[in-house]
Known about the structure:
The protein contains 10 helices and no strands. By secondary structure, the chain is mostly helical.
Amino acid sequence: MTEASTARASTGRVKADRLAKEDWLDTGLRILGQTGPGGIRVDQVCKAMKVTKGSFYWHFQDRQDLLDSLFAHWRQRETTALIDFVEGRYAEPDKRIRHVVEFVTLGSYDVATEVAMRQWGQTDDMVRAGLREVDAERLCFFTRQFSALGFAADQAGLRAATVYSLTLSCGYMLTGESRDALEARMRASMEMLLRQD
Length: 197
């Protein structure tokens, strides 16, 4: 009996036809960015996925399991995987810094979900603790890059905090800048922070 036949015999469906857990989590993050954590309800996620609740319970025990998984998925996707990618792609620390800054401020980074996560952390202890770890992981990444460029430990840490604050603030600030103006400002800021006088 093939693996597909075995799955069909035991569940009535071929498991490969089911949506992947990552699909559920990506949809959950999109809803989170649109509505905040209060909008993450099983029926709403199922509606967005155009499936029944039975499909949801294939991957998650309940709503809390989904919420717990959402934060871990977001952290992996928006922090750990991004850091792994740039450290694997670029040998030069300045290119690593520029890539992350440009991706978050000018690229396809999901700012709405970042904002929603920060709001969620105001009311959920687990999310707040996780956000502290995310901030530490991101700051550590930037500090490593500035240290590799030859900055002393205190200067590397200061520049890391500055570039991280600058990068995050772009998602919150309503400056009315055109994309070209924002790009010029970010590039000028990077030149200032990377310059060794």
